[in-house]
Amino acid sequence: xxxxxxxxxxxxxxxxxxxxxxxxxxxxxxxxxxxxxxxxxxxxxxxxxxxxxxxxxxxxxxxxxxxxxxxxxxxxxxxxxxxxxxxxxxxxxxxxxxxxxxxxxxxxxxxxxxxxxxxxxxxxxxxxxxxxxxxxxxxxxxxxxxxxxxxxxxxxxxxxxxxxxxxxxxxxxxxxxxxxxxxxxxxxxxxxxxxxxxxxxxxxxxxxxxxxxxxxxxxxxxxxxxxxxxxxxxxxxxxxxxxxxxxxxxxxxxxxxxxxxxxxxxxxxxxxxxxxxxxxxxxxxxxxxxxxxxxxxxxxxxxxxxxxxxxxxxxxxxxxxxxxxxxxxxxxxxxxxxxxxxxxxxxxxxxxxxxxxxxxxxxxxxxxxxxxxxxxxxxxxxxxxxxxxxxxxxxxxxxxxxxxxxxxxxxxxxxxxxxxxxxxxxxxxxxxxxxxxxxxxxxxxxxxxxxxxxxxxxxxxxxxxxxxxxxxxxxxxxxxxxxxxxxxxxxxxxxxxxxxxxxxxxxxxxxxxxxxxxxxxxxxxxxxxxxxxxxxxxxxxxxxxxxxxxxxxxxxxxxxxxxxxxxxxxxxxxxxxxxxxxxxxxxxxxxxxxxxxxxxxxxxxxxxxxxxxxxxxxxxxxxxxxxxxxxxxxxxxxxxxxxxxxxxxxxxxxxxxxxxxxxxxxxxxxxxxxxxxxxxxxxxxxxxxxxxxxxxxxxxxxxxxxxxxxxxxxxxxxxxxxxxxxxxxxxxxxxxxxxxxxxxxxxxxxxxxxxxxxxxxxxxxxxxxxxxxxxxxxxxxxxxxxxxxxxxxxxxxxxxxxxxxxxxxxxxxxxxxxxxxxxxxxxxxxxxxxxxxxxxxxxxxxxxxxxxxxxxxxxxxxxxxxxxxxxxxxxxxxxxxxxxxxxxxxxxxxxxxxxxxxxxxxxxxxxxxxxxxxxxxxxxxxxxxxxxxxxxxxxxxxxxxxxxxxxxxxxxxxxxxxxxxxxxxxxxxxxxxxxxxxxxxxxxxxxxxxxxxxxxxxxxxxxxxxxxxxxxxxxxxxxxxxxxxxxxxxxxxxxxxxxxxxxxxxxxxxxxxxxxxxxxxxxxxxxxxxxxxxxxxxxxxxxxxxxxxxxxxxxxxxxxxxxxxxxxxxxxxxxxxxxxxxxxxxxxxxxxxxxxxxxxxxxxxxxxxxxxxxxxxxxxxxxxxxxxxxxxxxxxxxxxxxxxxxxxxxxxxxx
Length: 1199
Description:
Helix content: 55-70%
Strand content: under 5%
Number of strands: 4
Protein name: Importin N-terminal domain-containing protein
Oligomer: single chain
Family: Belongs to the exportin family.
Shape: globular
Region (Disordered): 1157-1199
GO biological process, one term: protein export from nucleus
Domain Importin N-terminal: 29-96
């Protein structure tokens, strides 16, 4: 060992950590340290620096450990690393663990963790096999002293996590051997003999030796004994710090093992009871670690016979009493920190215990202590934390669905209390509660990172409450409907104060919640009232009629309250099928409300009420068309009478016409659909074809005159009186209402009548498409042309506001909050207000026009066979696309282009899409590249993790939000093209190497068969992955995975495109994963790289070429990797090899690699309280240093 090198290294480290060092000096020192990591003598220097006896500063010791770890993790397979060198490194790791640290209470945690990490990295590569006495070393360390005991526990825990918990790349290569080795050392010799009488497990062709060391008790027994010793000593506030630390380490090690060790090992010792006892320990940290063990046990996937050994005793032997006492001790306190984390984890574990174990499928076990457990879960559901109470709702829903417990009398006793509890969540009063309830606000501020997150979760809580109520009501149907009836009776007596924003008041929210409860209850009783054999069917039906009668008679002067009651009437449609006694009165109520007299004081509210009544009629018509069939003539007459009397506006007229349409098109009775259809649709089509309308749509200049832009411009230069402004409004809005009314009506009628499974519906629309679509295309072309500022240059400068977003629109775009319109007298009308109205009108008309095209695309050949359709589409949609803002372009893609492309029938793809997509994909690609470059040059101002409501609504923020939205929706558009359906089983004889294939859409196959289109869309996908937008990155990565599947399944026909795809996607994914911005997407990007390499490398050389260019001159590692990959037949092992190899060529912080997914994302339905205490991530024993990320991969592939 060269002393001069040691001195130079220490000087370099001092330079790096000295705040007074210059950048050049620090970079040179960093380079020296990095070079030493690659030096063959690095581990030797590392051992000297790390050992406590050499008296180095902790940062130097930590770097010394990094020198050894670098060799172990990244160069262990190098041919230059001989068996002797490996043996020496292994001995050094043992030495450091046994005698290289200071006493337990003096040593820094990051040093201990780094040594444990090093030990584990060696073990994963050498044990079992080359290092057979590893467990002996651990036991010697464990029994040495308290310092050694803590180190042994750290090592064992880390090894268990890497092998059995985390998706560790190295462990994945030897998973079978490592898992078997761990199973053996964790269990006693006796347990292993009982579990494996023959000493082996597996099938005849592949067996694993499962024989324990003679006399070995196993680590589970050892840890249980240790807990039994420590817990009594940790019950007082004066407990020894060393005892507490060892107890915590023991529990954390258990948590890493209880999810997979042999169940007999757990059952053989009092682990379950000890875990329950830890929940009552005075130490917060011990309680928290114990709760983690409780959760691991609760989540474990067990067979019924295994539950009998370790779960049912928890119910039968006092475990529930201990858990209840632990929870209730702290449930009423205002907690934070680890005390609150313990409460959350206890709730999470209890919910998982109920869902995963008690309510396991086909389990018929009903514990004697069921009532105690349900009382505990009810108490948890009543907690003031929205997060906790909502999490518990999952359990109650699962319980009420379970075959056994849904019929259990003990469960039934809790239903009334549950209904009362969860009905309180239906009021959606979380905003008011947040403001007035300090306890509720306290927990919300801890549970959620932002107000937006809190509100989003509160909305989810509402749906979960609905689920519980929906399941509980049918169990006690009569009691439930009577209880609800009483609540509604009291709610209808409510007298509302005439205040602005009455809908936001606590009184109205409770009123709304009560009616929601009624609606949920009635929908839950559908089967009950239809079942004539049910003993309470008639009584429930009578109670519903009584309830409906009260609602029909309701005539409160509060318009929003009346609107809410009117909306609730559609919930009685199932009752009308069985008992239509009140149907006429209900329809009469709705018709009268649809022409409710306008009140000057609340015109907006009344218009909203009338619209709600009309849409409720549509819902009723859609639900019971056959019930309404006998009175269709009277309904039609009533609608026509209202139209002739001018009693309703255009919007209500359109909705009532939809009411007639849904009856005609949904009824199975012989109504004349064609007559009904033409009565509604033909007038709209004829109006669009009228000469004055055609003239208005002939070019942008005429269109501007038609919509009143010229008149408004002139009015802006004049001083008009209010009555003159009103007159101007009447003139211009009447013209505009014709066009927008026709387009919106067509869209509504299409949405209500187009049924791809009904040929008659398609034929009716096909007859009118030729007359209808030219007007729609002309409207879109004019609307897009109006986005050109030059067209407005001759008008008043104030007319430019038509092209800009209002402050309210900007706020809504950024924060997601819609502006509130306070009821009351209208402000005096101004010309400026008319200009603002024009901007809104143009936006709505554009959206409705796009949606008409989207609906037309559902007509199949009737739409796609229109002569010259591709040319007309491209002209109307894209002639003026450069003038569209990113927001407008996003709407165009999402609402028009995507459905037109995705719905295109296979026979029309070539004629319809070939030219369109050759132009579209490159345009989107280049536009996004240009806009993202501009945004980056100017400096991105948003952090995607920021709460939108906390952002300042500046022009820069708005511009960036629009760019991010466009980017994400383009990624979604591409994904929708390549997304495949469910796997389709095929016979093994057809594809011997796989049992199923993906159902690739014809559209995806068409695009990938066209070289130019395929190249452009793959280029677009690759750029979407690298833009600094997490959502777009994740979605485009999904698209790339779908493309890979399609190309592999169609190989060798896809060979040319596959080679291009592989090169481009690997480069883009490696660039993205190198960018710290894409930290959240690393896991999915790693999966993409791995799957591309494994699937494509078996067919061609392109993946190897990309890796070679990334590695540069270091070809030996690649050849070794390729050699090992070629000899591996197991696909999972191939994936592990690639993931392990990636660590050496992608410059991201090592601690961020291969982290386990959060429990909530797993396929298993375990409940996790998001963002709170979890099992430690892999980085808990990783380096705490700030590792140099490097310069990036953007230029790595340049020649």
